[in-house]
Design goal:
alpha+beta; four-stranded antiparallel beta sheet
Length: 159
């Protein structure tokens, strides 16, 4: 479960351009729920995802993921619990590698492997099944280089 309590974020604090993006923002997403975040440009959609993932710091509040307080963790430690697909396909992936190769690297994250292949044939069916859930047709593009894909929308996924 994801719980956001009293989230506060302000840009350009104490200046003429001060912009309070979130003030006492609360959100609860229960296990198994699927949530879409929509809004106009500048509404805070990407900023919210950036705060959750740790690439943007909040100015207050709490974010818990399954009773783990995320705001106490640096971004690199949050990646253990949060997977992210960026709007720009060249962020977070190696654009010269295929979807299959990029997913294999992510799937093996934290595992020790020497000079053996990180890509195993048994992963292909697993990755296809996970990509079907995203519903973007990527399960049929496993051998396409990530840099050749068009941009989608910012999303957070926990497989």
């Amino acid at each position: 479960m994801l719980q956001i309590k009293n989230l506060y974020k302000v840009f350009n604090k104490n200046t003429i351009n001060e912009n309070i993006l979130f003030e006492d923002f609360n959100l609860e997403v229960k296990k198994g729920e699927f949530v879409s975040i929509i809004g106009s440009n500048g509404a805070g959609k990407s900023s919210l995802l950036n705060i959750i993932s740790g690439s943007l710091l909040s100015d207050g509040g709490k974010i818990n993921l399954s009773n783990l307080e995320l705001l106490k963790l640096p971004e690199y430690k949050r990646t253990r619990y949060i997977g992210r697909v960026f709007q720009n396909p060249s962020f977070g992936v190696s654009p010269n590698m295929t979807i299959l190769e990029n997913m294999s690297i992510a799937y093996n994250k934290g595992n020790k492997f020497g000079l053996t292949f990180a890509l195993k044939k048994s992963y292909i069916d697993i990755f296809k099944e996970k990509l079907k859930k995203v519903d973007m047709g990527l399960e049929d593009k496993l051998y396409t280089k990530a840099g050749l894909l068009s941009g989608g929308k910012d999303k957070l996924y926990r497989f």
